[in-house]
Structures are given as structure tokens and as C-alpha cells.
Design brief:
Layout (H helix, E strand, L loop, with lengths): L5 H9 L1 H7 L5 H7 L4 H4 L1 H24 L1 H19 L5 H19 L1 H9 L3 H14 L1 H16 L4 H20 L14 H10 L3 H29 L7 H22 L5 H25 L4 H13 L1 H13 L6 H26 L5 H30 L1
Helix pairs in contact: 1-9, 2-10, 5-6, 5-7, 5-18, 6-7, 6-11, 8-18, 9-14, 9-17, 10-14, 13-16, 13-17, 13-18, 13-19, 14-16, 14-17, 15-16, 15-17, 15-19, 18-19
Organism: Bacterioplanoides pacificum
Subcellular location: Cell inner membrane; Cell membrane
Membrane topology: Multi-pass membrane protein
């Protein structure tokens, strides 16, 4: 039988993290009640997942450089599916947090290798174009995940969400076992220390700034994801049925930006499109911060600006990853892992800081988003400055 297109195969397992994060957002209030805790403590499970995902990436990237992409991906998905089974019967907050970390480690080990496989197979602008195509397909996951979660809450129990996650991961595992070919042959595998690989990336005068720029741009999105239940369900008083549609606006804009990125790459370079995406994100987050500092913007205004802030990732991610991987062909797994670790660690940190600053208004959330967007722009400007200096020299 004919093999499935590579972007579709990559999207199948890259979709696992957004499914695992977004599907249970509408159920957080019910989870808090069932586990006899506060919703803000349940929201910490998002940060717990981000930490576990970072651990999985930092392990899975270098490991795939050594033994190949395929075995690491299959092991990670198997771990995710098994841990999801245990999450069905979680009894308290501590168990939830611990199991979410373990679940995320499996997801991180698998997902980190998506961009590495693209770098194994493609060169130049084709890397950014393929990553954008993978992202467009994968974006169906965060688009339907909150809706699925809302349907589960309506017709079943919140625990059924983890049943669906386990089943999905198992099906993906079976498909990849049959369809996914190894893209990193033995003769290209690296035997050097992963820490040495990480240091070479961190020390690179340009790549390190692109890594940080992408990490801070994603952090802006993660702050929103962590606080989205509070913002829409609590502050604006929306129902769990309305939540998927409010959340889905971000995904629609992101998918549009991914498609736009593929078209614009015909005329513009990846650094130019990355800069434009960061500026879009910063403008939207600063507008949100000013509006909430001066009064109470409408729900429609808030949803629109957040959609552009989060959706700008469609212009940022593929171009930033492509720019980093351009310098590290033979250790693309390690490079992708460092990108992921930076994204998810900073996302978890800023999400935790939001929980400390939370004063039952959206302003701290908007401030955290604006700070991370400003830092993303600063990193892009530093990268451009180094590149300009090298050209002059």
C-alpha cells in the first residue's frame, strides 16, 4: 500500500502535545471540584506538562542523533499512551501533576524529532515551507481539541478525555510503526556528547538568539493557554460550550499565518518573515495590556487581539526553526531539542509567575504576554545585529 505523505505522518504525532494540553482546558473547573482543589492549582498541570515536555525533548533530541529518529519517536508515543491510561484513575492533585509530567516526557521525546526529520530530508527554504505545511495539518488538533473536551464534559466524565488521548496515541503508534521510515542513517549519527552539542548551539553567535526569540514568542502563547480558562470562563463568564469557539479563533489565525508564510517565502526571506511575525505579536499584546490597564475591553476585542498575538506563531515558528537548523545539519535533533526545552521551560516559568501575580484581573496575564513578546523582539534584533556585523567584517 502507498505510504502516507511525510508531512501528514509528522503532523500525526506532532499533534499529540496540543491535544494533551488543549483538550482538557474546558474541564478544569470540573477537575478542580472532583479533586477537591482550586482551579488555579489545576491550571498548574499545564506548567507541569510543559516541564515534562521539555525533559522529553532534551532527552529525545540527542538520543535520536545517536540511534535514529524512528525508535525514539515510537518509544515516546508508547510512554504517552500508557501514562494516559493511569491518568484516567487519578485521585488527587499530586497524582495529576506527576502523571502529567511523565505523559509529557513521552510526548516530548516523539515531537522533538518532527523538525529533525524535515531537516534530514530538505534544504534551505524547503525546510521552512515543509514545517509550515506540517503545522497547518497539525493545527487541526488545537482547533478541535477544546471542542472534543467540551463534548466529553457534556456527555461523559472529564476522565474520558485521557481515555481519548491514550486511544489516539495508540492508533498513531500503530500507523507510524508501519509507515514511518528512518531518516537518519547510521553513517550520519553523532556519537559526541549531547552536552557538547548543546554548548555548540548556545555559543553560536546567531543561532542562540533565534532560539531565544522563538522561545519567548511561544511563551507569550503559553501564558495565554495557562490562563485561558480563567480569562474566558471566569472573568468573561463564558460557558464551557463557548470555550472551544473562543479558543479556536487563535488556531484559525495561526493556520492562516502558516499558509501565508508558505506563500510569502517565495518573495521574502525567513529572517524578514520572522521579524514581521514578532512585530505582529508584540503589537497585539501591547494593545491588550493598554486596554486592560485603562478599562474593560469587550470580549470580541479581547478574542481578536489574542488571536493575532497567538496566531503570529504561524509566521514565527517555521522560520525561526529553519534559521537555527541551517547551522546544525548533523545535530538537528539536539538543535530541535534545545529549541523545545527553551520554549517549554520559559513557558512553564512565565505560567508559574502568572499564578503568583494573579490578582483576579486579566492585567497580570497581559503584562506577562507583553514582556515575553518584547524579549522575543530584542532577541531578533540582536541576531540581525550580529549578522550585519559579520557582513560588514
Amino acid at each position: 500500500m502507498k505510504r502516507l505523505p511525510l508531512p501528514l505522518l509528522l503532523a500525526l504525532f506532532t499533534a499529540i502535545p496540543p491535544l494533551a494540553i488543549d483538550m482538557y482546558l474546558p474541564a478544569m473547573a470540573l477537575m478542580a471540584n472532583d479533586l477537591a482543589t482550586d482551579i488555579h492549582k489545576v491550571e498548574l498541570s499545564v506548567s507541569a506538562f510543559l516541564i515534562g515536555f521539555a525533559v522529553g525533548q532534551i532527552a529525545g533530541g540527542p538520543l535520536s542523533d545517536r540511534i535514529g529518529r524512528r525508535p525514539v519517536i515510537l518509544f515516546g508515543i508508547a510512554l504517552f499512551s500508557l501514562t494516559s491510561v493511569f491518568l484516567i484513575n487519578v485521585q488527587d492533585l499530586d497524582q495529576l501533576l506527576l502523571l502529567r509530567v511523565l505523559q509529557a516526557i513521552g510526548g516530548g521525546m516523539a515531537s522533538v524529532n518532527s523538525a529533525a526529520i524535515v531537516r534530514d530530508r530538505y534544504q534551505g527554504k524547503d525546510v521552512a515551507k515543509t514545517l509550515s505545511l506540517v503545522a497547518m495539518i497539525m493545527m487541526l488538533a488545537p482547533l478541535i481539541a477544546p471542542l472534543l473536551g467540551s463534548l466529553v464534559v457534556r456527555f461523559g466524565q472529564w476522565r474520558d478525555i485521557f481515555t481519548l488521548l491514550s486511544a489516539y496515541a495508540f492508533v498513531v503508534l500503530m500507523i507510524l510503526s508501519w509507515q514511518l521510515e528512518e531518516s537518519h542513517p547510521p553513517e550520519k549519527r553523532q556519537k559526541s556528547s549531547p552536552w557538547g552539542n548543546y554548548l555548540s548551539i548556545i555559543r553560536h553567535p546567531v543561532a542562540r538568539y533565534y532560539v531565544l526569540a522563538l522561545a519567548f514568542a511561544f511563551t507569550t502563547m503559553f501564558v495565554f493557554i495557562t490562563a485561558s480558562s480563567y480569562l474566558y470562563l471566569d472573568h468573561f463568564g463564558q460557558s464551557s460550550d463557548a470555550f472551544p469557539w473562543l479558543f479556536g479563533a487563535n488556531v484559525v489565525v495561526m493556520m492562516t499565518m502558516n499558509r501565508l508564510n508558505m506563500i510569502l517565502l517565495r518573495r521574502f526571506s525567513s529572517p524578514q518573515l520572522l521579524f514581521a511575525g514578532i512585530l505582529l505579536q508584540l503589537g497585539a499584546t501591547l494593545a491588550l495590556t493598554l486596554l486592560f490597564a485603562s478599562g474593560q475591553p469587550s470580549l470580541a476585542t479581547t478574542v481578536t487581539l489574542i488571536a493575532f498575538s497567538v496566531g503570529s506563531i504561524g509566521l514565527v515558528a517555521a522560520n525561526a526553526i529553519s534559521l537555527v537548523l541551517h547551522y546544525f545539519h548533523h545535530i538537528s535533533g539536539s538543535a530541535t531539542a534545545l529549541i523545545g526545552v527553551s520554549e517549554f521551560c520559559l513557558g512553564a516559568l512565565f505560567g508559574y509567575l502568572w499564578s503568583l501575580l494573579h490578582n483576579h484581573t486579566p492585567l497580570p496575564m497581559m503584562l506577562m504576554m507583553a514582556v515575553s513578546a518584547c524579549l522575543a523582539l530584542l532577541c531578533v534584533l540582536l541576531a540581525r545585529r550580529v549578522q550585519h556585523s559579520d557582513k560588514v567584517a
